[in-house]
């Protein structure tokens, strides 16, 4: 991995580059008119990125309806998708859980997503993710139709729309932040087992009869997952549960949220398993509207006190101080890039760092070098070589793990050294 390749035509040494603190990001454009952009569809822009991407790439998507199924692979991190407006920039597809895959088998809910995020540090702004499948009839089987699936850590969405019916937003795993988004669906249309904060979002139901806003999948008291809705509003049609206990330790909180009269008085459903009433965590805090009346709520839900609500109503819920600083809807992520430059310096001064307890996790054996400095980490190199040899899903998962491990170690190095090699 040649970090310096991404600096473009700059030919200075890694030591001088380190002074820049951040690699410059670059921009690609997607336009329906091939003469006005770099690409005519989003997936081609994603495919053009390096196999292992470690710099912020902003993909500006011009107005238009992009009828395509988009997948961002696990190792293509630091991608920003920025539309011209959620009303005018739309990516849509129409798969359901029962749509045949390439082998003729039902693809399942996970693979039905119109847009799938599998890489960390993803950002989306001012764009709509849509699954065109209509609201299913009551009792219909296999009609789960995901508009957006987020299966990676540190993902954030600003001013976006997620449109679908059953299972619109698969908030699958990782820490996520949704700011000023519009999410529309009918049944379990925000579901998964992520740790997510929804701030200032409009949640709108299009249920014909009975529906549910959330189905949170926390499976153990040891899992640090859950959904928190802060300063949101819930509107729409039909009658809704605030949540159904998909996981036995499901955790959902609504705070400072307006609820229309579509919310069932009982509020929550135990998924047909009374034992879950002892283990779920469902709470409300200072909500308003006819649907927020707590008088009819199930006994196993909570009206939170100030102290009980505090962990759920700020960015600390998703460790946001580590990776988000919101300024007027913009995401300020302290990029991995400057830490990679720190690692470049560390690799050239092993004597100075070998005594540090975390150093052994960063580098063993010689790194590869060129005229610009070191260009690889042996652990990642070995994992890639192994994956190319055995060609299994697990082996490529190991590559992702090695990249994650190095990024965590470099982050720690940056904190310990405070930007200065001692």
TrEMBL record:
Keyword entries, A-Z = Aspartyl esterase, Glycoprotein, Hydrolase, Metal-binding, Metalloprotease, Protease, Zinc
Q: What class of enzyme is it?
A: hydrolase
Organism source for this protein?
Brassica campestris (Field mustard)
Can you tell which superkingdom this protein's organism belongs to? Eukaryota
Q: Which cofactor is recorded for it?
A: Zn(2+)
Family recorded in the similarity comment: Belongs to the peptidase M28 family. M28B subfamily. Belongs to the pectinesterase family.
For molecular function, the Gene Ontology terms on record are: metal ion binding; metallopeptidase activity; pectinesterase activity
Q: Which GO terms describe its biological process?
A: cell wall modification; pectin catabolic process; proteolysis
Q: Where is the Pectinesterase catalytic domain?
A: 33-320
User: Which EC number(s) are documented for this chain?
Assistant: 3.1.1.11
User: What is the protein name stated in its UniProt record?
Assistant: Pectinesterase
